[in-house]
Design goal:
Layout: H1 3-16, H2 34-51, H3 58-72, E1 83-87, E2 94-97, E3 101-105, H4 106-111, H5 115-131, H6 133-142, H7 148-151, H8 156-168, H9 177-194, H10 199-214, H11 216-225, H12 230-242, H13 256-263
Parallel strand pairs: 1-3
Antiparallel strand pairs: 2-3
Helix pairs in contact: 3-5, 5-9, 5-10, 9-12, 10-11, 10-12
This protein binds zinc ion.
């Protein structure tokens, strides 16, 4: 087949499947339907439960989940089930995998100065999920081969390979600049609507940039998947300041400090 034939086949298939976007992203082709993505997420989640050291401390998971669900309730995919996980890992990082799963490292919990900074990173990850950047990447990588076998985990070695990339910051996990911009923009909105001061996203990003100079190994995994620049931070701040003033936006809460002391032992 000629390239153009393949391309038009690809595009028509995308049209037939309704492009399967959530409607908020800028429309990269996504051949994975929403229900397929959530199914895929379940398989990934089960595998990650074996591969990662997850924190089971109830108060910690409840705290992270509460912030996460509050943010999710302001998104276009609020009717899908979302789940939040805490990983015992001192690296300052959080990541999302397809199907509404967001992972927050204990290193991130320790590094934030307030709840709004934590909400900032989480809102950004949730926005990647809502924009379905993960399955867009998969569509790009696998094209029409992203059939039932891959989606339904009948090919465990591929599932493993994808997961290793997503979690390890491989090519599949590398978001483009426009993906990052989109997630920042949406994330700021979700924070604002959920009642968190979006300035928290900017101050946390500044912290990540300065850590890159002083403790590069602690933020390596974050930077391997999220290109972060001064200009991105400036754009986040500008967007936050353009929003109409709103009373009572949360910066600090009364719980973060106790959560930080509970997870301290995982970061040693
Ligand atoms: Zn990102």
């Amino acid at each position: 087949m000629k390239i153009t034939t393949i391309l038009s086949l690809f595009l028509s298939l995308a049209l037939v499947s309704g492009c399967a976007t959530s409607g908020v992203n800028r429309g990269d082709v996504n051949l994975v339907s929403l229900s397929e993505e959530w199914q895929m997420g379940q398989q990934f989640e089960q595998q990650l439960a074996k591969d990662l050291k997850l924190v089971n401390d109830r108060a910690t998971v409840a705290y992270v989940s509460r912030i996460g669900q509050q943010l999710v309730s302001q998104t276009e995919l609020r009717n899908q089930p979302w789940e939040f996980h805490v990983v015992a890992d001192p690296a300052i990082n959080a990541f999302n995998i397809p199907g509404g799963h967001v992972y927050v490292n204990t290193g991130l919990l320790a590094a934030v100065d307030n709840a709004a900074e934590l909400a900032g990173v989480m809102a950004h990850e949730i926005a990647h999920g809502v924009s379905r950047h993960g399955t867009e990447r998969l569509t790009k990588a696998y094209g029409l081969n992203i059939g039932a076998g891959l989606l339904l985990g009948q090919d465990p070695s591929t599932t493993q390979k994808i997961l290793a990339q997503l979690v390890g910051g491989g090519a599949l996990a590398k978001f483009s600049r426009s993906d990052e911009r989109e997630s920042d923009e949406l994330g700021v909105l979700y924070m604002y609507r959920a009642g968190y001061d979006p300035e928290g996203m900017a101050t946390m990003f500044e912290k990540l940039l300065s850590q890159r100079k002083s403790r590069p190994s602690a933020v390596q995994s974050f930077f391997s998947s999220h290109p972060l620049t001064e200009s991105r931070i400036a754009a986040v701040r500008a967007e936050a300041r353009q929003l109409p003033p709103k009373r009572g936006l949360t910066t600090r809460d009364g719980e973060l400090a106790s959560v930080q002391s509970r997870v301290g032992r995982y970061n040693r």
